[in-house]
């Protein structure tokens, strides 16, 4: 089987980012984490990662991301980054909880290895809430130091914000806290009800309850001159703020995990499902990518209000 057939694609892949989920080991256990104890034992060997990078380059990809789990705790991360850059990957992104970046020397080594894009998941803006979510008593202090180290080194990280039952009402303040440290971009991610977090249904409130706080976050971002956008909420639930809704299909991401390969928009935790109420909408199967399956299972589609004027 050819590499192209193995990936299940036939079109041009040159603009695709290959997102390699190295494994599921982590140095914390966040209260919303979907990784089960069994999944934490599933990790790619260095050899397998190199093989996946070779396949991606053979298909013409020149952008790679490393995620997890927590990639910064792997001893082979920097060698893998160097390998990727040496083989022609123009950009290397790493998604992290940010704890390791609290060490200046680690940040220096990360940059020297060739990491170009740093993404950090941030939980909150107070020590108490950060400790509750991350399960680390010094979480806010360490991640604050880490973000500061990255900014000082000239690599301002993208800060991914998790929207859940105990963070949505604080989004504006969370954005203000991290923007004051120099952060400029804040994607908002709805918590997912999958695997370990599947039964924690209260962690995912309805958008109708969170809407005022989401709008306040968009407005605070505009006021501060930073970019805030939603990755998982259909535009009809954020009417008047459609410009803040990002379509995952635009990202062109191929995810490679220890046991699977799929495009990001195909993921079970990506918005890719339409309900019957969507069918009359102007944007169905066009600009709108749909709703997440776990959201529909939890809340149904009563919040879906189709845009009128579909022309066929």
Classify the beta-strand content into a percent band. Answer: 5-15%
Average pLDDT taken over every residue = 93
Shape: globular
CATH topology: TIM Barrel
Termini Cα gap: 41 Å
| CATH class descriptor | Alpha Beta
Largest β-sheet summary: 9 strands, mixed
CATH homologous superfamily heading: Aldolase class I
Any idea how many domains?
A: 1
Helical residues, percent: 25-40%
Main sheet strand line-up? 7-6-5-4-3-2-1-8-9
Structural class: alpha/beta
Radius of gyration: 19 Å
Annotated CATH architecture: Alpha-Beta Barrel
Q: Uncertain spans, ≥5 residues at pLDDT below 50?
A: 1-8
Order of SSEs:
HEHEHEHEHHEHEHEEEH
- Please give the count of helices: 9
Can you characterise this structure?
- This protein has 312 residues and is α/β, with parallel strands linked by helices.
- The chain has one domain (3-270): TIM Barrel.
- The chain has helices spanning 3-7, 46-58, 77-86, 104-113, 127-134, 139-152, 171-179, 207-224, 293-299; strands at 17-21, 63-67, 91-96, 117-122, 158-163, 185-190, 227-230, 253-256, 261-263.
- A 9-stranded mixed sheet has the order 7-6-5-4-3-2-1-8-9.
- β2 (63-67), α3 (77-86) and β3 (91-96) form a beta-alpha-beta unit.
- Residues 1-8 have low confidence and may be disordered.
Quick recap:
With 312 residues, the protein is an alpha/beta fold.
Task: Spell out the key features of this protein.
disordered N terminus; TIM Barrel; alpha/beta; nine-stranded mixed beta sheet; 312 residues
Reconstruct the topology from this structure:
Layout: H1 3-7, E1 17-21, H2 46-58, E2 63-67, H3 77-86, E3 91-96, H4 104-113, E4 117-122, H5 127-134, H6 139-152, E5 158-163, H7 171-179, E6 185-190, H8 207-224, E7 227-230, E8 253-256, E9 261-263, H9 293-299
Parallel strand pairs: 1-2, 1-8, 2-3, 3-4, 4-5, 5-6, 6-7
Antiparallel strand pairs: 8-9
